Amino acid sequence: MQLGFAMLCAGSVRAKNTMNIMLTNVLDAAASGLSYYLFGYAFSFKSPSNGFIGRHFFGLREFPSSQADYSFFLYQWAFAIAVAGITSSSIAERTQFVAYLIYSSFLTGFVYPVVSHWFWSGDGWASAVKSDNNLLFGSGAIDFAGSGVVHMVGGIARLWGALIEGPRIGRFDRSGQSVVLRGHSASLVVLGSFLLWFGWYGFNPSSFLTILKSYGDSGGYYGQ
């Protein structure tokens, strides 16, 4: 899916910014993965913890060695970098490279993990499976596939990024009239769309908990 985001975004910008977009998405996945590995997963899951944030498994220390646990970590990492991918196109062509990596690392290492802890951890204040009474009249919120935890968080981060960065250079002329800045490659846009489409088949169906179970060393069932 990260490749799909990269292709879609690269095709939607002007040709001179293509290499920057490609490199940003590659290093974005690496920086986000490292951030989620060191801090994000620890902030997200494992009981006991408080209702706001988790506090176990920093750097996966003392992490269970079962295949199902590592599959779950990999699955949650995919969610984290998807949040970062959602935001990338909103600030394309108008952000500094280092600034974006810091922004992305903070998003995947703290912001998204904290929100996912609220809803998906057994101790989160808004979790539907919280053992004691939570703040939502004892009912909790069910976010089955991440419409709020993933897409709303990514959308809000995307909105703030666009508001802070402002319009792209050349987006408006001297009179204030908007100027159409067309993407340079429809082929990359179509390719990215198909890659994302294919990626969703492994991304969303995995919300069924049965897919997160261990089905042998091959992991073939999880791969589908």
Helix vs. strand class: mainly alpha
In what range is the share of β-strand residues? Answer: under 5%
Rounded average pLDDT:
81
Broad shape: elongated
Terminus-to-terminus distance: 15 Å
CATH architecture, please? Orthogonal Bundle
Helices, by number, come to: 7
Q: How many domains would you count in the coordinates?
A: 1
Contiguous runs where pLDDT drops below 50 for at least 5 residues: 210-224
Strands, count: 0
Give the oligomer, counting copies of the same chain as homo and different chains as hetero: single chain
Using the coordinates shown, work out and report the CATH topology: Ammonium transporter fold
Labels describing this entry:
mainly alpha, disordered C terminus, 7 helices, Ammonium transporter fold, elongated, single chain
Explain the overall architecture.
- The chain is mainly alpha-helical and 224 residues long.
- It has helices spanning 2-12, 18-44, 67-88, 97-120, 147-165, 186-203, 220-223.
- The longest helix has 27 residues, at 18-44.
- It is elongated.
- Residues 210-224 have low confidence and may be disordered.
Brief digest:
One of its GO terms (molecular function) is ammonium channel activity. With 224 residues, this protein is mainly alpha-helical. It contains seven helices and no strands.
What is the element layout, followed by pairings?
Layout: H1 2-12, H2 18-44, H3 67-88, H4 97-120, H5 147-165, H6 186-203, H7 220-223
